[in-house]
């Protein structure tokens, strides 16, 4: 009968036996078809919401795990060198230790600042201070800010400026922050004695700021995953992107541009670039 078919359908939707009416209490039996449809749709929507919530928790946990690792790395260096300085005479290691403590303390402070910015980006409250700027001094400032870290790993940073003044409507501080993260990422994955190339190029209304490292590079699967994460919609937690790359991605978007990545495979290095329109940045 229609009523029996309705009951059977309900049984399948809730994953229970047709005789177990306790799974859907307070419903009249035999059940009306329109009521059945409403209940089924409600159950489907509840299941979808539960899956979305579980996925959000999974991505959040992955992000917190990555963040915890990133925060712990400079702290280990700070604590390690502090212990050495306490126990050792003030000789050659003293100066080296102080430099390491200072360098890693700055990294730690930057990470804490980045956490605030990530929160603002996800809440949509991070605003740009737009003005006409020359991007070349911004690039130089970002490189100089990480000069000590590069020198500590004996990494050479080569900068190729644009042939013409790189004028753009942008927030200089935020672009310097984004470039800082691309450079820090390149230093992190470039072996000691390696090389990083920074290039600023203007092409048909677009400025391309590329950071290429000589590190281990990316295989096809890792490259595809990072590209998918970079292309994810605003507000979506991107898998595989650390705090710095997330900020660089969103800063590029707020300027009407994008973050791009390329690699020819393992042991070939990788290139992250900000591609920005000379006009049209968000206010």
Structure description:
- It is a single chain.
- With 283 residues, the protein is of the alpha+beta class.
- It has 8 helices and 7 strands, in the order H-H-H-E-H-H-E-E-H-E-E-H-H-E-E.
- It has helices at residues 2-14, 33-87, 92-123, 135-145, 147-152, 172-189, 220-230, 243-254, and strands at 131-134, 156-160, 167-170, 195-203, 206-213, 258-262, 271-277.
- A 5-stranded mixed sheet has the order 2-4-5-7-6. A two-stranded antiparallel ribbon has the order 1-3.
- The longest helix is centred in the first third of the chain and has 55 residues, at 33-87.
Globular, elongated, flat, extended or rod-shaped: what is the shape? globular
Estimated helix fraction: 55-70%
Reading the helices and strands in chain order gives: HHHEHHEEHEEHHEE
Which structural class is indicated by helix and strand composition? alpha+beta
Q: How many strand units? A: 7
Beta-strand percent range: 5-15%
Strand order of the largest sheet: 2-4-5-7-6
Low-confidence stretches: 1-24
Terminal CA distance: 64 Å
| Average pLDDT rating | 78
Tally of separate helices: 8
- Sheet of most strands: 5 strands, mixed
Rounded radius of gyration (Å): 26 Å
List the helices and strands and how they pair.
Layout: H1 2-14, H2 33-87, H3 92-123, E1 131-134, H4 135-145, H5 147-152, E2 156-160, E3 167-170, H6 172-189, E4 195-203, E5 206-213, H7 220-230, H8 243-254, E6 258-262, E7 271-277
Helix pairs in contact: 1-2, 2-3, 3-8, 4-6, 6-8
What's the quick description here?
With 283 residues, the chain is an alpha+beta fold. The chain is built from eight helices and seven strands; from the N terminus they run αααβααββαββααββ. Strands 2-4-5-7-6 form a five-stranded mixed sheet. A two-stranded antiparallel ribbon has the order 1-3.
């Amino acid at each position: 009968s229609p009523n029996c078919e309705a009951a059977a359908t309900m049984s399948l939707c809730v994953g229970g036996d047709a005789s177990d009416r306790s799974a859907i209490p307070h419903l009249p039996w035999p059940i009306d078809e329109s009521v059945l449809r409403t209940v089924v749709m409600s159950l489907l929507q509840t299941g979808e919401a539960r899956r979305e919530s579980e996925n959000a928790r999974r991505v959040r946990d992955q992000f917190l795990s990555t963040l915890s690792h990133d925060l712990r790395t400079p702290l280990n260096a700070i604590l390690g060198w502090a212990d050495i300085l306490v126990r050792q005479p003030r000789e050659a290691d003293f100066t080296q230790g102080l430099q390491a403590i200072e360098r890693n303390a700055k990294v730690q402070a930057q990470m804490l600042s980045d956490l605030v910015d990530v929160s603002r980006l996800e809440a949509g409250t991070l605003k740009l201070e737009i003005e006409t700027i020359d991007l070349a001094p911004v690039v130089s400032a970002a490189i100089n800010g990480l000069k000590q870290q590069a020198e500590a790993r004996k990494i050479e940073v080569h900068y190729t400026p644009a042939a013409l003044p790189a004028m753009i409507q942008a927030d200089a501080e935020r672009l310097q922050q984004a470039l800082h993260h691309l450079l820090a990422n390149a230093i992190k994955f470039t072996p000691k004695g390696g090389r990083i190339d920074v290039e600023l190029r203007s092409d048909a209304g677009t400025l391309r700021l590329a950071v290429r490292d000589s590190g281990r590079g990316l295989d096809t699967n890792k490259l595809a995953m990072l590209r998918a994460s970079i292309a994810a919609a605003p507000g979506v937690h991107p898998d595989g992107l650390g705090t710095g790359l997330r900020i660089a991605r969103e800063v590029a978007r707020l300027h009407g541009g994008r973050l791009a990545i390329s690699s020819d495979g393992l042991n070939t290095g990788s290139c992250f670039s900000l591609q920005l329109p000379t006009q049209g940045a968000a206010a």
